[in-house]
Amino acid sequence: MGGVAPRPAVGAVVVLNGVVVGEGATEPRPGQHAEAMAVAQAGEQAKGATLYCTLEPHSFKGFAAPCTDIIIDAGITTVVCPTEDPYPRVSGDGFRQLKVAGVELVREASDEQTKRAELIVEGFTHHTRTRRPLVTLKLATSLDGKIATRTGESKWITNEASRARVHEMRRQTDALVTGIGTVLADNPRLTARDSQGDATGRPLLRVIVDTSARMPVDAALLSEPGEVLWVVGDNMHIDPPTDSVSVLEASLIGGKVDLAVVIGEIGRRGLHNVMIEAGAGLAGAFVEAGIVNKVAAFIAPKIIGGSKAQGPLEGLGIDSIGEILSLENLTHTVIDGDILIQGHVSKTT
Predict the structure, then answer these.
(1) Which residues of the chain have pLDDT under 50?
(2) Which phi and psi (to 5°) does residue 42 adopt?
(3) Contact indicator for 298, 340 with CB cutoff of 8 Å
(4) Where are the alpha helices (DSSP H) in the chain?
């Protein structure tokens, strides 16, 4: 996951007589698809073998040859795949072509296997249906819901293992969004790194929401490889500071950048998964705009206290419990004592 959009992330394994003889994961354009890589690695052992894949093999000529043709020509006799591709040019046609060629197709899988396969491509599925990316809001708070002390100190509320998980989530996302307040306060790099500080990958796009164009030219994120989308108000007319920066002049609502324009631009670029890592102001604005699809909340078993200690979301908030934003499809993971709660925003919210 991560780094292959606008393609979906797919994994494939070729098995002959109970032995794995080939495997692959989809590469960014113009690289290969997972099925083609697995079949190529299997070579002659693909004949009579079974291919397991997480998404229906694609059936048309695009940047890559049809995976259905590659599977059929290699002599694969059985394909095991629980998930139909939502993309209209495939959407069952890959399965149909395999059946017509005499390849046995197995769609049955356990509920857990199907859920995991669908989770890998949920951003792709969401983008295919809406032309907008799936937006995940990442939060990190104390047990009493604070993101900093009353003096603004915030490093570190969550533990090292939780922070490592965040870097893995960054690696798996396509676009990472933060606000100018975070840039000015923390000077982040917005990259995915391991415990030694070495890069493990990066979001395809880093987005800075900066209505008044205050980002300094020596911001640390500008020295990192990869594209930066600098979103400013449409009353600001500025030139990008480096070749890796593109400027989006967005319309304003209440004097602030219209976040729907930001998400629309990310979707237009064919990116599927967005993660919001921002201060309380921007995080609250995304929630109030109704743009958040998922929440990943890291909760540390610590108490900060104090009415002046900041919470994770600013803004007007709701008037009644009936308007509350609730989550479904919840998971709970304990990470060295911290708790990670993840869920989708309820469709009835």
Answers:
(1) none
(2) -70, -30
(3) yes
(4) 34-42, 67-74, 93-100, 111-120, 122-130, 160-172, 180-186, 259-268, 280-288
CB-based contacts of 264: which residues, under 8 Å, 6+ apart? 132
The CA distance from 274 to 270, in Å, is 11
| 327-335 vs 338-345, strand pairing mode | antiparallel
Q: In what order do the strands lie in the sheet with 245-250?
A: 245-250, 227-233, 205-209, 175-179, 273-276, 134-142, 294-300, 338-345, 327-335
3-state secondary structure of 96: helix
Exposed, middle or buried: residue 347 (CB in 10 Å: 0-12, 13-18, 19+)? exposed
At 184 the three-state DSSP class reads: helix
Q: Which of 25, 29, 27 is nearest to 38 (CA)?
A: 25
268 CB-contact burial (10 Å; exposed 0-12 / middle 13-18 / buried 19+) = exposed
pTM of the model: 0.90
Condensed to tens digits (0 to 9), the pLDDT of residues 271-322 reads 999 999 999 999 999 999 999 999 999 999 999 999 999 999 998 888 888 8
Told to judge if 227 belongs to the known catalytic residues of this protein, a careful annotator would answer: no
The amino acid sitting at 52 is Y
Q: 68 phi and psi, to 5 degrees?
A: -60, -45
List 23, 27, 35, 118, catalytic entry: 35
